Structure formats: structure tokens, C-alpha cells
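Raw record, unedited: Spore germination GerD central core domain-containing protein
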Amino acid sequence: MVLDILQTDEAKQSVGKMMKDEKFKQNLMIDESTVRTTLIQSMTNPNSPHIKEAFKDPKFASTLAKSMKDEQKTLMKDLMKDPEYQKQLISVMKDPEFEKNLMDLMKSAAYRQQTMQVMKESLQSPLFQAELMKLMTKVSEDMTKPKELKPKKKGKSGGDSGGDSGDSSS
């Protein structure tokens, strides 16, 4: 009989009005500990259909990821300091299969295109250009110095340079 009454238009309107009432909403609110317990139980159960469905929703997944971003960042920084994690990470990177996959990736056109884009952007940066000029100047100076030093060494002390050239040729 109660169900029949709730099916009427008047009952539906009354329930709608109750749902809009703030005092009624406060009474319906679930306390924080119940929400936390329910969330933990749902998240720790890998077979939970509700969680699987929720993660299929891009809005839910992105909101969850954004809300956990700072915690994830902190976790990763802590893991990088952990010696056991470092060992595991290094062992994964030394794995021949990982190395092969990485090399295949680096050979791909997309990777090469991205690398070229990064290089172009870097070359357009005034700070990078200044650093590059310093490096090029240093390399240029280093290349000219040995040519000047070798003839001077041979001319000044023939015995020393003769011993040096004898060691480097054998």
C-alpha cells in the first residue's frame, strides 16, 4: 500500500521537495568514517564492478589523478631516495629486453622527430645560444692550443718530446 502511494504524482513531488530541503539533505549525509571505510573497501577489492565502471569514466579518472598528483609526486621522490627501489629500478633498466625496447623506441620516427623539435627549440633559446657559444669558443681554443704546443715542445726540448712521441706510437 505504501509503495502504491509513493507511485503517485503527489508523492513524487513531495519527495522531490524533501530532496531539495537543506535540512533533509544534512540528515541524509553519511558521516566521514562511513565514506572512508566504504571507499577503502571498494578500492582494495580489485573485482569491484563499481570501481571498474568508475575508472572507465574519463572525468572520474582525471579528477582522481589530479587529486592525487601531489601525493604521487611525494611518493615518487621518496622512492627515488630508497636504496632498495633504486636497485630494482637499475635492474629493470639493465634488463636486455628493456634495453632492446628502448633502443627500438629511439629508432622510431616519432622519437627522432620529437628530438629534433627539442633541439630546434633549444637552439632558439638565447640562454642556450650563449652556452653553446661559450662551448664552441672553448673547443676552438682547445683545438688550436695542442697544435701550437707540439711544435714548441719539439723545438725547445727535443729529448722530452721524442720520448713522448715514442710512447704514444707504440
